[in-house]
């Protein structure tokens, strides 16, 4: 039997559902209706189900496309982001002409063309405690493809409170994971939820903007999420409740690990900030656990690589015209060959969580950094991105990848002023805090990272 006993009982109770499918829909979904254990009654259940997809990114796009194609009656999607060029390699519903456009507006235009029988509801807003309840309570199943921990906790806690099943997915690099949270059993007892996996808000983990992601991986995990949603909606199969499915893309390996509910005393209170500013999202973090953990996402390496030997560098010098070992920062300067503390061929990293105390970090806007360069203010510029990013574009300075920063803290001098930059300000903020905690007094981070610098100061430079 392809369906669980529980699902079979659920189906038998609803055999008397009035016919909801039009003849055209029966023709459209004919290959699904032919499936033993699915048939017309399951297709009608899909049509009568309301599903909310949180996030219209790498996971949300394949989710929406397949749920729409399979015949889910009502789809909601919430996302306040605009399409960026770097989205296009994995978020394949968007086109080049959509860059800069609100994502949900593009989705509202495209999905009805895929299935004219779909009822689509879009929310061009960020989920917060002010609006999340009013949105989530309208739907039967929630699918979370968000890319930050604050949203994931908010969605999870509301699903627990509202008694709604939550399909969770996350990816990073070549890997991903998947589960179904808060699904009630025959006795009405809820299954494990996100706080059984992460009892407390994790610490110090990069997202896919930092760690990268292979375009097809979100498609794989998002498609598997769509499968779990369809199983829940149709009442078939064995949902992935109480289990974590992990996908290793490089080895093409799927592993399923059991997940049990924690005692209530071991879980952190369900407290979510009223708002989730970008500065908090920049500090997305993850605990050290036996399993690799992801957010669209964030991860720990399952099998750590050995720490590579570093080249012996000269002491970090101050940026000025007397410092012969490093070039002075010039307005809009693109230095193709900047010095690295790593061998050129070394580009694999261990994402090591580093506990740091929150300290106030001074910031510089791109134009202020330019003024420093023009006035020859003495400082040392540090790029904490990875070597491959540095090769794409840089504005000079010493390359010390964030993933190697902790082992290089002794190279920083307490009497030197440092300006730290990365891609968009995430890693540089954490790096600056680490330096402050190490005793370096004058540390600045470049607001918005090199991408903002390019937008405001040097638009001729390569973006990525």
What does this structure look like?
The chain is α/β, with parallel strands linked by helices and 464 residues long. It has two domains: 277 residues, Rossmann fold (3-Layer(aba) Sandwich); 159 residues, Oxidized Rhodanese, domain 1, CATH 3.40.250. The chain has 16 helices and 13 strands. It has an eight-stranded mixed sheet, sandwiched between helices.
Keywords:
about 475 residues; alpha/beta; Rossmann fold; Oxidized Rhodanese, domain 1; 8-stranded mixed β-sheet; 5-stranded parallel β-sheet; 13 strands; about 30% helix; elongated; disordered N terminus
Write the layout of secondary structure elements.
Blueprint: H1 5-13, H2 23-28, H3 30-33, H4 39-47, E1 50-54, H5 60-70, E2 74-78, H6 103-114, E3 119-123, H7 132-136, E4 141-144, H8 149-162, E5 166-172, E6 175-181, H9 194-197, H10 208-211, H11 216-234, E7 243-248, E8 253-258, H12 278-281, E9 362-364, H13 366-374, E10 380-383, H14 387-392, E11 398-399, E12 418-421, H15 426-437, E13 443-446, H16 449-456
């Amino acid at each position: 039997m392809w369906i669980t006993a529980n699902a079979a009982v659920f189906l038998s109770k609803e055999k008397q559902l009035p016919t909801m499918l039009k003849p055209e829909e029966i023709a459209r979904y004919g290959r699904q209706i032919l499936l033993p254990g699915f048939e017309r009654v399951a297709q009608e259940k899909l049509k009568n189900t309301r599903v909310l997809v949180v996030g219209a990114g790498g996971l949300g796009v394949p989710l929406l496309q397949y749920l729409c194609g399979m015949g889910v009656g009502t789809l909601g999607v919430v996302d306040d982001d605009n399409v960026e060029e770097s989205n296009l390699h994995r978020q394949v519903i968007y086109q080049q002409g959509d860059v800069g456009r609100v994502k949900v507006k593009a989705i509202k235009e495209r999905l009805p063309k895929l299935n004219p029988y779909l009822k689509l509801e879009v929310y061009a807003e960020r989920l917060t405690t002010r609006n999340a309840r009013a949105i989530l309570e309208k739907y039967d199943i929630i699918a979370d493809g968000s890319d930050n921990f604050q949203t994931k906790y908010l969605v999870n806690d509301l699903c627990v409170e509202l008694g709604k099943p939550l399909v969770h997915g996350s990816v990073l690099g070549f890997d991903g994971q998947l589960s179904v949270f808060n699904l009630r059993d025959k006795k009405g007892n809820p299954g494990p939820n996100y706080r059984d996996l992460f009892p407390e808000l994790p610490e110090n983990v990069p997202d896919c903007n930092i760690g990268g992601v292979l375009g097809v991986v979100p498609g794989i995990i998002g498609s598997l999420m769509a499968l779990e949603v369809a199983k829940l909606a149709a009442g078939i199969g064995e949902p992935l409740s109480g289990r974590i499915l992990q996908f290793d893309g490089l080895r093409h390996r799927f592993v399923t690990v059991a997940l049990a509910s924690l005692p209530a005393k071991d879980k952190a209170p369900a407290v979510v900030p009223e708002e989730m500013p970008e500065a908090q999202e920049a500090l997305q973090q993850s605990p050290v656990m036996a399993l690799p953990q992801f957010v669209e996402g964030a991860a720990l390496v399952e099998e750590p690589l050995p720490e590579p030997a570093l080249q012996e560098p000269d002491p970090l010098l101050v940026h000025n015209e007397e410092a012969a070992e490093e070039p002075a920062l010039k307005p809009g300067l693109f230095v193709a060959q900047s010095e690295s503390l790593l061998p050129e061929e070394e580009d694999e990293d261990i994402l090591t969580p580093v506990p740091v105390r929150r300290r106030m970090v001074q910031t510089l806007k791109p134009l202020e950094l330019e003024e420093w360069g023009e006035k020859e203010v003495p400082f040392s510029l540090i790029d904490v991105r990875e070597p491959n990013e540095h090769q794409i574009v840089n504005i000079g300075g010493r390359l010390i990848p964030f993933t190697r920063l902790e082992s290089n803290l002794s190279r920083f001098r307490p009497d030197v002023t440092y300006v730290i930059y990365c891609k968009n300000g995430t890693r540089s903020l954490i790096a600056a805090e680490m330096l402050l905690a190490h005793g370096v007094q004058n540390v600045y981070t470049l607001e918005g990272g090199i991408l903002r610098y390019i937008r405001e100061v040097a638009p001729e430079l390569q973006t990525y």
